[in-house]
Amino acid sequence: MKSIENLIQTYWEEIIEARKFLHQHPEDRYVEFETQRCIINFLEKNGIKYETNIYETAIIAYINGEYSGKTIAFRADMDALPLKEDTECEFKSLNNGYMHACGHDAHMAIMLGTAVILNKMKNKINGNIKIIFQPAEEQGIEGGAKGLIKAGVLNNVDSIFAAHVWPDLPVGQIAIGNNEMMASCDLIKIKIKGKSGHIGLPHQCINPVYVASQFLNTVAGIRMHYIDPFENLVWNFGIFKPDTFMGNAIPSEIFLSGSARTYNNELRTYIKQKCKNILEGFKLIYDIDYEYNYHWGYAPVINDYETSIFFRACAAEVLGEKNVIVPSKAVMTSEDFGEYLKEIKGSFAWLGAGEDEKVKYPLHNSKFLVPEKTIENGIKIFTNLALKYLG
Q: Can you tell me which residues bind Mn(2+) (predicted)?
């Protein structure tokens, strides 16, 4: 561990310089061009092999040990969020309206640091490491993981690992579950078509507002009475938008958009069909028409049991056993790392990024900023993991 710490100290200024640039230049999905340039410059400066022509703006860095063996992969996401940054840091976003509110700048910095240190320790590695810098994790439906998998990024990879910074955990801790970590994410879009008219003549109209409200009530009733209450499920709608906003007129259409999140793929199929059944029933009852799209999004993040035990053991050597946690429950937020875990064994972690218990900003908040100590901890953990796996 001492040799890892010494190398981190040697390259720390360069790692943090890259992190600050990445934080200052947040970019939307699939247009991470400045981000890509920063990563390439870092890799080239340190003599690390890489590939850029595999998928969109993705970069794959390669660390090949002196001896043959297995291949593991690490993943860092690259894209930012359309939020205006409201932190006081000296390296705040220069791309107005975008910021790294999900900590992807820290994820990339962790993997750049891990790459440069492992590249200096090739003589201790029996095998190969792929470090995947992935675009478009925040996409929600067709994220970058699916595209990279189709392009063959997991070919010959035995296991894959990643971590997400987590402000609900204090700096110096990490949480690695044995199975369920983050939920699936499917997008539901519905347009209910009625007949517009004067609000004082409702009998001459078909009111889509009423039908849409009945749809939402029916969804809530199905969740309450027909689905196991112990199922982890969010089936909810956040957009309810008519095509007109006149107080004395019934609109002709209502647009609904929502999400279904679960760990149960059978339940995803059930929800998709139930939405269709409700709409078909309302078409007969209320004489409406409708458009309906159910988009299968990210798979749930479900860790491999044995791989997670190994991941925790490696993390414990860095942080101490008491600071390595098995989460008591999964969460209903989503991550496209689950797409990789559908294909090969792997494990996903939450890396502590909370500094102040009194003032805690969540992910996707305009004031969220990852502490540098979290980056250092991440580098130590992933470097140690690679050396143990391929030692």
A: 102, 104, 138, 164, 364
